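A reminder before we start the practical. When you read a complex entry, don't treat the lines as separate problems. The point of joint prediction is that each chain is placed relative to the others, so the output describes one connected object in space. Small molecules and nucleic acid strands, if listed, are placed in the same frame. In the example below there are two entries. Take a minute to note the order of the lines before looking further.
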Amino acid sequence: MREYELIVIGGGPAGLAAALSAWEGGLRDILILERDGALGGILNQCVHNGFGLHRFKEELTGTEYAGRFIDMLSGTGVAVKTDSMVLSVSPEKQVEYVNPTDGCQVVCAKAVVLAMGCRERTRGAVSVPGARCSGIFTAGAAQRFINIEGQMVGRRVVILGSGDIGLIMARRMTLEGAEVLACVELMPYSSGLNRNIVQCLEDFGIPLYLSHTVTDIIGKDRLEKVVVSAVDERRQPIPGTERTFLCDTLLLSVGLLPENELTRAMGAEIDPRTNGAVVWENMETSVPGVFACGNVLQVHDLVDFVSGESGRAGAAAADYVRRGPAPAGRTVKLENGDAVAYTVPQRIRMEAAGDGVQAFFRVNRVFGRSAVTVKSGEKQIARFKRDHMAPGEMEHIFLPGKLLALAEGDTLTVSAEEVEA
Amino acid sequence: MWDVIIVGCGVVGAACAYQLSRYKLRAAVLEAGSDVAAGATKANSAILHAGYDPEPGTLMARLNVAGVSMAEEICRKLDVPYRKNGSMVLAFSGKDRDCLRELMSRGERNGVPGLRLLTGAEARALEPEVSGEAVEALLAPSAAIVNPWEYALAMAETAVRNGVELYRNCRVTAITREQGGFAVTAGDKVFHGKYIINAAGVYAGAVHRLVGEPGFTIRPAKGEYYLLDKCEGTRVSRVIFQCPGAAGKGVLVSPTVHGNLIVGPTSEPSGPEDVSSTARGLQTVRELAARSVPGIRFRENIRNFTGVRAGSDRGDFILEEAPGVPGFFNAAGICSPGLSAAPAIAEYLLEQMAGRGLALEKKEAFIDTRRRVRFHELDREGRNELIAKDARYGRVVCRCETVTEGEIVACLRQPIPPASINGVKRRVGAGMGRCQGGFCGPRVQELLARELGVRPEEIPLEDAGSYILTGETKERWF
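Here is the predicted structure of the whole assembly.
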């Protein structure tokens, strides 16, 4: 059986950054397995700009951003197999894949990086009642039709959910000549980035209905209309508030789910809060030598942060192969406290933490002036000020090693709180 | 001149076509929709009932038990996913206990094998997720689960292989009696036939009315379902029923042959094509199902769907020559256990038609087998053999269900090729998984367009009118 130093599963932004940084970390026998026909992942259908502001300090399109990484990778000896679907990964790091030229093969590696990305939640996942006509698309599927296939999906559009892809598609559909009638969001706030609300809805005069949802879908063959209702504090539709939109298209932007079927089947521990693997400070999962990064680990808002996280995972994988497992020793759990939905990483090996640990989380409601606190028991060991926080925007803190050393016990709790003006 | 014209190609029409194709006669099937098995046949509980439910002496009772024993062999011969996993009816009260005894007694009279009463604890030993509130259960080992649309498709395909002609998009609009039979008009086509089988499901009454007043009324009743992700698919291993009420067999919880969990249905009078789901109906399903299996995680739902039962005011199957219309045979009022009984319904009708002069002479060469590639079920060696012959089996199109391009292309070469995205889904499973075609939908569309030599926007989701694309984004300048 062919053994690689590192196999990266997925050649989207996460896999690309992980492979690149593992190469920079000294590995010379790396394989990327990509299920699509080309590297780049979902970025290949992101023809809009706004990528790379953090990473490259300039504004790129998604395809350009992917192109930068693909160019950097082409200067290395990283092997790439496209059209290659991974069917299973074992805890012993045997990877079974299939493609038209190799057939069904098993290869193995000293380390594996999981970078399979995420998929969109569907109509079923949110149980929207109504007819089963055509004209209902997840926003990403519509994006693929329009941007990759050059095929238009409809003319009069309602969008359910205000996730970033839905917002981007509101603008895209408008630019392609469709009329976007409304963007309907169940929650009292958008789950998308503020800049997308402004640039994709407000700039085009598309109304955003917060605390509303689609309560009926009507159409015999193709969608004919949708009924939208206001919802109460318990997110239940309020009778009498129904309004009908005549439309031929409903786009769903109702959330993303990390695609962890391989991870689960391998037996890695999954965090029910993120639907991703539970990871240590270096992005290593509960299976030694198997790392996870990007949207398969936690759903990100910005690809720049995917690249950063994946770079750390790739570097850690290189360390694992070249220097062996991270030192065990004392471990601390990073837990979510008040108003924090989850944290990544979930666990820290104190000896491996070195200079410090990057921690990511989301709050579960909107904050104005506020603070993020990190506590060990009742003792606050760190405090970070914020002017604004929202569930749609991932938060990030750096916990220096010096502060981590102050932790007592085996738990650190990250909380968010309002601060008086 | 056709010997037999079958109107409708759901599971009953398909079973009739399959049985008729054994004989030296000319048969045609006229299906109004763009595909076979696309009505009630595709949207039901996917259960082959053991047969303890119908009143002894009814056609339902007789043909249910006969049908399920035929189904096992048909599924084996025609390569249809089938699993005899047994069923359990739960009792939650003294009244329910009486009901179990009544069902057991009916089942014994109907000839259902192996029925057994279990205590609540015995039931939970077999099915640990069953509610602690269940005090007793009736176990029926002969119940099975099946892929209902593939079951009908396999019978229809085999019929076509053996010479039956299938006409799709062929809605019957007029029937006139003529010398020696009927003239059946469907759009711009006229079919002359000696016998007609009316297997038009919810439209059986309407089709009958073309030759005279039917002595029955079809009363469509819709049922709503949840289909949960495979991560919920092992929550139970048998079909878990509750005691039947006036509205039907109640809400069941069952694994599917594909590995998902199916939960439903409700029962509400409806229009003949009302396959919409409702917030209230879905809530009812959740609440009732939780009584049987409290641990179901409905957030793992991947799809809701609704089917319409084509029951009638008679309360039993209507399998008879229409009074005063010699040669016109009804297979009407087919609600549950119609799927279970289908092949027995066909056999029963053929006997009656033979009694009215239809000559049934067996063909020497009847092809009674069917096989299809299911890539995900093959071992590595089998997969590699296939890929070596045709590299398209190495390209996975549907990631959730591991369906390859090779399988999709192959299904287009079958006797009843699909013409829609849902048609491909029913044949190979692409788009049936947890992402519901989010990834593979655009690719299947492209493949279908390529293989059929049409533009992508000409490929519908289901019937004509259910278009997916509206045309290219930009005019071509080159």
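Discuss with your neighbour: Chain A is about 20% helix and 35% strand. What might explain this?
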